[in-house]
Amino acid sequence: MSVSRLRHIPGIGVDTMGDAADAAHDPDLLRLENLDTDLRPPQVALDVTHLAIDDDAANSFLPFQGKTELRAAAAAHVGRIAGVPYDPATECLSVAGGLNGVLNVLLATVEPGQEVVVCDPIYAGLVNRIRLVGGVPRHVRGTPTKDGWSVDPDELAAAVGPNTAAVLAMSPAMPTGALLDDTHWNALAPKAVEHDCWIVYDAAMERIRFDGRAPAHPASHPALADRTLTVGSASKELRMIGWRVGWVVGPARIIADVHLVGLTNVVCQVGIAQQAVAAALEAPDAEADVAAATRVWQQRCELILDELADYPCVRPHGGWSLLVDTAALGLSPADASDRLFRQGQVAATPMTGWGPSGDDYVRLVFANEPVERLRGLGERFRAAFG
User: Fold this and answer.
1) Model confidence pLDDT, tens digit, residues 287-330
2) Cα–Cα distance, 272 to 275 (Å, whole number)
3) Domain residue ranges in the chain
4) CA angle, corner 338, sides to 334 and 343, nearest 5?
5) pTM of the full predicted structure?
6) Domain 4-40+287-385 adopts which CATH fold?
7) Can you list the pairs that 327-334 forms with residues at least 24 positions away whose Cβ atoms lie under 8 Å?
8) Is 43-282 CATH 3.40.640.10?
9) How far from chain centre, in Å, is Cα 191?
10) For residue range 229-258, what is the model confidence (pLDDT) as tens digits?
11) DSSP code of 214?
């Protein structure tokens, strides 16, 4: 490895498993390794994208901060959920997908050596971005219970200290499906104010909840409204993965810095995709569309939990994935993943590198395989593990 900034950044495992699954050319292989989905994007997004191909204005770098229509739609969308008005001209930027937005925000808010608080387990790509900017991940353990994952609000708040630059929060979290709610924001608020840190809220899956409740947004807390940066994305809720469009919404005093990072990083977003995302966010049936997709994903999740009732699965409260405790099976995640692949025809990603607790789990993604193919998953597990 030639540069020190990559020394503590491992791969995410998903790429390796995805490549192996692609190379197998096995139509019977269950693809549970990657956050893809077979559910189509909103029809309005498809229609507007087709029109944009012939629109010369869509084939442009400008405006660098994103199309006016997209920023208006994204600012209004976040404002509705958070209960906070945002000026799309000064408090919203478009980015090339949510993770590009997370990296830009971290580069604009974290000094080398400062800590960024995250829950555990958490997506390795988030941890790696913290390390890439020179930050130090501070993990707060999630607790697996019979009802799902929980994060203690007081433990989350206690992790914030004088060297904390930000709390990077995701709800539902990936890969656990854990939820953060107002009890967490209430606990965090005094510590965030005391230590003047940012709340970076990854909202990629915030409406994919299995309890039917609306998202609990940190900016809705009066003490956090002026220190919350929301990073949103069309990839998960709108199923527009390949469009690579996201947004960052927050106080004007920091959005200007995030914009400067963006000009130095990806520069601009996919031109032909921005109008489509704006249309999907503003569609009259937008909420119903996300709710309908969520019901499908929840049905698949419940089927997997039923199929694997004899195995140590942890129930998610939302999102696209769930975890299986391989330590309880006496196996490492890598060994369990290998057995599933070779003996069960199941592609599943080991959670090595996904936080300290990740070394005990393998992940199953339920967003990309229909229930017809998921039936019989229990037999595949028995073939792999006996």
Assistant:
1) 999 999 999 999 999 999 999 999 999 999 999 999 999 999 99
2) 7
3) 4-40+287-385, 43-282
4) 155
5) 0.96
6) Aspartate Aminotransferase, domain 1 (3.90.1150)
7) 327/359, 327/360, 327/361, 329/385, 331/385, 332/359, 333/358, 333/359, 333/360, 333/361, 333/362
8) yes
9) 25
10) 999 999 999 999 999 999 999 999 999 999
11) P
